[in-house]
Amino acid sequence: MTGEPTDIPFTHPDRQRYFEDYIPGSTHNLGSVAVDEQEVLEFARRYDPQSIHVSTEFAENGPFKGLIASGWHTASLMMSLFAPNYLSDVSSLSSPGMDELRWVAPVRPGDILTVNVLIASTRRSSSKPDRGVVNTDISVINQDGVTVMSMSAVNMVQCRSTDVT
Fold this sequence. Notes:
The chain has 165 residues and is α+β, with helices and mostly antiparallel strands. It is built from 4 helices and 5 strands, in the order βααααββββ. It has one domain: Hotdog Thioesterase (Thiol Ester Dehydrase, Chain A).
């Protein structure tokens, strides 16, 4: 039937996702985002003003032999896909945190980053049956197939129904 939530792909920004829609073991590609040099410089100047992020001259002679994005910028680029394509305004309640954040390879201007997720586990709250906990393993991979960032996220998500079965 048209108009039902299942008619829209899981990762579509218009999809209303609830706790029951997050199926443990399922994987999803959340799309890709390009890394822009001007944005790398602007982000770093404001939030992470280390020379390897803000000075192309310094970076050329530095340990990475070129300008690299701040890991926090990489995480922000990941969130630009994670929030609209994985979470949902109708059900995303909060996140108590993340675990195992790793920046495992440099991200450079011109890179194309793809975000993939694995729903590692879900657990309905016993004290608040209107919500559940979704644990997600996130991988950010560049155009060469190299994982540049990984992390595990914990999200509180509203249930579609409060009926516990």
